[in-house]
Structures are given as C-alpha cells and as structure tokens.
Amino acid sequence: MNLLRLGLLLVLVGFFAPVGCELNGYQIAQGILGHTTRIGNATLLAPVPDFFGYLLFGVFILALAGLIITFLTRVQKSFLLGFLCLAVSFVMVVVVTLKFKAMREETVRHFLVTLFRIKVNIQIGGYSMGAGYLAGAVGFILNTFKITK
C-alpha cells in the first residue's frame, strides 16, 4: 500500500515539476487548450486538439483521486481502486506522449529542408512521474502476490 501511495504522490509532484521544455504538466495542458497568454513556451502546443489537454488534466485528477482512495479505510478494495486510478492515469500520459511524438515527427518532416529539429528533453517532473508509475506497479505486484503486508 505504501509503494502505491508513494507512486501516486510522485505522479502528483511530477505533474507540477518541469516535465519538458521548462514547462510543467499544468502549463502543457493549458498550452494545449490554447491558454498561452502567460505561458510563452506553450504556444507551440496550440495546434494539438483540446482533447489531449483534458487527458493531461485527467492524469492529475486520477492520481489525486487514487491517493485519496488509498487513505480511505472504509472503502473496500481501496488498494485496487487506487491502482486502477494510477493505471488509467498512465494510459492517459502514454496517449498524450504518443500524440506529441507524432506531432514532432510531422514537424521534422515538414521542416526537413531547413534542418529544423525539435528535441524535447525530459526533465525532473517526467522522471518523477515515471518513477511513480514504476513504484505503483511494483507495489501492486508485491501486494497481489502477498509479498508484503
């Protein structure tokens, strides 16, 4: 249970830490939704459909809901529900990441003549989220096989 809580907490912290291009998850989602007045670097994200911005906000909401559920002792199968929130959150991150990858490849093909390349370096927030998903998966495996209490 503690590893799952740690994993969910790392996803939450990672969402608000710089993920890529000096932007955190909140700023990236705002950029996708077209609210780029205060977020200069996010203007590149405006052509991405709004659906992906809502998915990114869903990552935060599900991680928070999963963390809260794991602390509720009256909820039966709270561990399973918390892990389900983490798993759906992971799927949302993967969908958004694949969209960015497709967008990047399209941009590279479009500007190939000018040798324009987009390179996104993952920053501490991305690593924190990755570690959170890994810790949650390990916690789920340990709990499923009753390796820990």
What does this structure look like?
66% of the residues lie in helices and 3% in strands. It contains 5 helices and 2 strands; from the N terminus they run αββαααα. It has a two-stranded antiparallel sheet.
The total domain count is: 1
How many E strands? 2
Mean pLDDT: 79
Briefly note the structural class of the backbone: mainly alpha
Largest sheet: 2 strands, antiparallel
- Are there runs of 5+ residues with pLDDT below 50, and where? 110-118
Tally of contiguous helical segments: 5
Report the end-to-end length measured between terminal Cα atoms: 8 Å
Radius of gyration: 17 Å
Strand proportion, as a percent range, falls in under 5%
Helix content: 55-70%
Q: Name the overall outline.
A: elongated
Order of helices and strands: HEEHHHH
What keyword list fits this structure?
mainly alpha, single chain, elongated, about 5% strand, two-stranded antiparallel ribbon, about 150 residues
Structure at a glance:
By secondary structure, this protein is mostly helical. The chain has helices spanning 2-16, 25-32, 50-71, 78-110, 124-144, and strands at residues 18-20, 23-24.
